[in-house]
Design brief:
Belongs to the phosphoglycerate kinase family. Pathway: Carbohydrate degradation; glycolysis; pyruvate from D-glyceraldehyde 3-phosphate: step 2/5. It is found in: Cytoplasm. This is Phosphoglycerate kinase. Monomer. The strands form 4 sheets. Strands 5-6-4-1-7-8 form a 6-stranded parallel sheet. Helices cover 33% and strands 16% of the residues. The chain is an alpha/beta fold. Helix 1 packs across helix 2, helix 10 runs parallel beside helix 11 and helix 11 crosses helix 12. The chain has 2 domains: 165 residues, 3-Layer(aba) Sandwich (Rossmann fold), CATH 3.40.50; 195 residues, Rossmann fold (3-Layer(aba) Sandwich).
């Protein structure tokens, strides 16, 4: 898949560049909660490159779901502060997203300087993909770069409509992700092991349908495994699951029983409160009030055995209730096991809930690709057309 890129920096000097990044990261009490391999940290590398080549950078992003309203909790001020700490350069935040004040800030930039626009989703035109909003944004710059793979599955104005208004290019992060994921989507090296956790089966259905015929095995964990365990007649106690997903789980099990691998043992607790303890038990011993919060040691050993000969491993979604560190040990051990295969296999990790767990496991730099995308990664691998990618190809 070919995407037009800016191959050298000579043509950037003095140009106002609209750079779309994905800074939709956890923020708590005004502080960005991400490590050195997080989305903002990786975007900072590309921003620095643009500034070093004399571009005047106008940074675009969104945060959360403010629904077209100005809600202070979703301000990008903490993101600008985080970028300042990474770049050691001022990153002024324009409270106005479009209009004369934002225009003046953009036009007053000197070579190598930058500003950040406030949360794009404060404007209804962003999520509605309004041409008028895209035109207003485009007036701030002279060319556009999309380096937000994680948002490319959304037809929003700063991802889609804006490409009709300015010369548009793919950023290096986006290009790297698309290149590697396209290889996996079309022809993964075999044996291919798909590892799926997290909460929502509905987001994983297209991926299962696409890859079940191709994969040697699909290893299931997290809340995603619960409807499958229920479908096989196991009690899951008081664990989270959607009863409407059970018929589909039964269908998948009927067609691909030999490929869908479920946990042998699990970590359970009586409560998700901080003082509650976890115990590892077999599936047969799950009691009515138990909540599954992790995978057990036998499951880990089984899953590790499938990695030993794998040439491609794709993982999306944590295997425990990682909101608590003591319920995330299985996910950490899984991450370390997959990391040891990098080099011998292509190892692709993605998902917004997965990345913090990978960083806390200390192996974030040990994979072929640590994707910034959750929904975008799932959609792309499932064979769907991503509006952001399609828009760049048309341009």
């Amino acid at each position: 898949m070919q995407l037009q890129t800016i191959r050298h920096g000579k043509s950037l000097k003095g140009k106002r560049v609209l750079l779309r990044i994905d800074a939709n990261v956890p923020v708590k009490k005004g502080e960005v909660l991400e490590g050195s391999f997080g989305k903002v940290a990786r975007a900072a590398v590309d921003i620095e490159w643009l500034c070093q080549h004399g571009a005047k950078v106008i940074i675009l992003s969104h945060l959360g779901r403010p629904g077209g309203r100005r809600i202070s909790a979703y301000s990008l001020a903490p993101i600008a502060k985080r970028l300042e700490s990474l770049l050691h350069l001022p990153v002024p935040l324009s409270r106005d997203i479009v209009g004369s004040k934002a225009q003046r800030m953009a036009e007053n930039l000197e070579d190598g300087q930058m500003i950040m626009l406030e949360n794009l989703r404060f404007e209804k035109g962003e999520e509605e993909n309004q041409k008028s909003f895209a035109i207003a944004l485009s007036r701030l710059g002279e060319l556009y770069i999309n380096d937000a793979f994680a948002d490319c599955h959304r037809a929003h104005a700063s991802i889609d409509a804006i490409t009709e208004e300015l010369p548009s290019y793919a950023g290096p992060l986006l290009v790297q992700e698309v290149r590697l994921l396209d290889q996996i989507r079309k022809k993964p090296s075999t044996p291919f092991v798909l590892v799926l956790g997290g909460k929502k089966m509905e987001t994983k259905i297209p991926l299962l349908q696409h890859f079940l015929p191709l994969a040697e095995v699909v290893l299931l964990g997290g809340a995603l495994a619960h409807p499958f365990l229920f479908a096989k007649g196991f009690s899951i106690g008081s664990s989270l699951y959607d009863p409407h997903e059970v018929p589909l789980a039964k269908k998948f099990l009927k067609e691909f029983a030999h490929k869908l691998i479920l946990p042998l043992d699990v970590g359970v607790t009586k409560s998700l409160r901080s003082r509650s303890k976890m115990r590892i038990i077999s599936l047969a011993d799950i009691q009515k009030n138990d909540v599954i919060v992790d995978i057990g040691t036998k499951t880990l050993d089984l899953y590790r055995s499938f990695f030993q000969k794998a040439k491609t491993i794709v993982w999306n979604g944590p295997f425990g209730y990682c909101e608590r560190a003591d319920f995330c040990s299985g996910t950490h051990m899984l991450a370390k096991a997959i990391a040891t295969r990098t080099g011998k296999a292509k190892t692709i990790i993605g998902g917004g809930d997965t990345l913090p767990s990978i960083e806390s496991a200390g192996v974030a730099n040990q994979f072929t690709l640590l994707s910034t995308g959750g929904g975008a990664m799932l959609a792309f691998l499932s064979g769907e057309t991503l509006p952001g990618i399609e828009a760049l190809q048309k341009n």
